[in-house]
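Holo prediction. Input below; ligand is zinc ion.
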Amino acid sequence: MYLVSARDMLRKAKAGHYAVGHFNINNLEWTKAILETAEEQQSPVILGVSEGAGKYMGGFDVVVGMVNGLLKDLDISVPVALHLDHGTYDGCYKCLRAGFSSIMFDGSSLPIDENVAKTTELIKEAHRHGISIEAEVGAIGGEEDGVIGAGECADPAECKKIADLGVDFLAAGIGNIHGVYPENWQGLSFETLEKVKVAVGEMPLVLHGGSGIPADQVKKAITLGVSKVNVNTECQIVFTEATRKYFEENKDKAPKGFDPRKVLKPGYGAIKEMVKEKMELFGSVGKA
Ligand SMILES: [Zn+2]
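Structure of the complex:
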């Protein structure tokens, strides 16, 4: 199976009242774990790549080569999209050229007029290449922004303005946050989500910061039009915990325990478990 745009995948999800998981990748083990789990669960999947992760792996061409190679050699038959996560204007063009099947342009920090102008241009480019595009309205909070407690809530009128430009799916801040949720987090704003849903109509919505949102809130968000849920932090945490355990149990001191393939195996298994759990929660199992 070749990489596919996320457009039809998410329209189908919206109509079927489930969501497709977007899982960020960091290396080969991560990517293989997610693709194998998607195949086992017969679930569509979106592989997310931030610009930082792309740079870490050597560049976007490396990422495209690795993912396409895995699709072929692992005989993956479920729909898979390779998506740029929180792309800059330049990053979007780089991914278009490298062969990504989906991009996100994050113009949320720009004044709305500039966000509109750049989003309009990139929609045209993305669609000319036959790939999907996500846009963002209302910055999504995170530790790096010094946000504590509540994430930002998007203005439904601005959401409509961006949705009407022709993006394929839209990320709207509804109190969600990137990274680990603080103790005093207020929860998702379903009031905002309902208003955004009314404003944008059939447009599939994206929930960023999907790690650590209680399951009942995620399920409710899906019933209110969320069709893509981004998961990153939780996979990182379980990977690191499993790897730490390997060393704490002195498994690296066992014969050949220093073999990197052995060292990384528990983390790989932990990601598989997490991805499976999320696919079950999002309702995407068997929807490939
Ligand atoms: Zn995000």
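Residues 265-282 form the longest helix (18 residues). That is the main takeaway for now.
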